[in-house]
Amino acid sequence: MSDQVNLLNFDRPALAAWLQSRGEKPFRAQQLMKWIYQHGIDDFAAMTNIAKPFREELAAVAEIRGPKVVADQESLDGSRKWLLELQDGNRIESVYIPEPGRATLCISSQVGCALNCSFCSTAQQGFNRNLTSAEIVGQLWIANRLLVAAGQPPVSNVVFMGMGEPLLNFDQVMTAIAIMQDDFAYALSKRRVTISTAGVVPALRRLAETTDVSLALSLHAPDDELRTQLVPLNRKYAIAEVLDACRDYVGEGRRRVTIEYVMLDGVNDEDRHARALAKLLQGVPSKVNLIPFNPFPRTRYHRSSAARIERFRDILHRSGIVTITRKTRGDDIDAACGQLAGDFADRTRRRERLIVEVNGDIA
Ligand code: SAH
Hints:
It is built from twelve helices and 15 strands. By secondary structure, it is an alpha/beta fold. The protein has two domains: 59 residues, Orthogonal Bundle (DNA polymerase, domain 1), CATH 1.10.150.530; 295 residues, Alpha-Beta Barrel (TIM Barrel). α5 runs parallel beside α6, α7 runs parallel beside α9 and α10 runs parallel beside α11. It is globular, with a radius of gyration of 21 Å. The structure holds S-adenosyl-L-homocysteine (SAH). S-adenosyl-L-homocysteine (SAH) binds next to β10 and β12.
């Protein structure tokens, strides 16, 4: 570990305070952030509107250090998955999903995950640690540098749907979001940043006081008994309590919570589940995202058939609930929802021909 201060850890107020403590004007935070995030620069010497002696001082005490790219895979559908190595050797994954008019980056908030959802491959590796805000925003920073270098559209939307439970790493996630939304960094509007949670109720309550980004809830079942089997966190925070917190978060306006529902063959995909779900969501400003299950090694689950998913969606539709089926993206490179594992085992080696080793040192 280096002793240098990684500036990616600071949102603007923290950066201004740090600068002030070194006898610099706080407004320099704006200049620095523009170089770091908008120009993707990690070399202080290139920051030409900053006086040379101060640039030299910065280089001596600070650094701009993103995660290191150890593998870069491109799916046949154009999505890209990056395996990123952190300073302590841990590895995480981020996924880039380009669509007409938008480019979404799915990022991780923890190394592994503690929630142990039975249908998620991240759960199988257990929990290692929380990511720092530098490691969270660093995923966006490194992605944009690589995308710009390749002439691909930069990230327009960020979703916390990679590895980990963002609400169990609250402070670091909030700092990273503040940077994403800052006009001197990425200026992403609240609609373009989505937190996806399994429903950590106290943190959901706190979220409402802290931010107004978009919210997605991983519901996956219409009753507590079934949900507890799929999402063990439900034992602690039951459905009614979680939906209450979501309702309060989105408030009375036009905002809606996205309900995520993974379609598991013969488990939660029957007509009666759809009808119960429709009933449950009456009075919750929401839209439903049906996610066809993405398999991974040793899972006991199977994906519902396309016909079953369509039927499920129709039942919700007829009850007046806006429902879309999430298009599976990047499954040929194990980059789809629930397939992120962050290791570098055989799954990835199988696709060796798709792996482009890059060194992350892009000018
Ligand atoms: N912990 C957060 C964010 C990570 S999961 C959460 O629970 O929301 C992001 C989404 O992918 C969640 O809705 C999750 O339930 C879903 N998911 C997990 N495993 C999946 C799988 N194997 N197939 C399809 N979706 C999955």
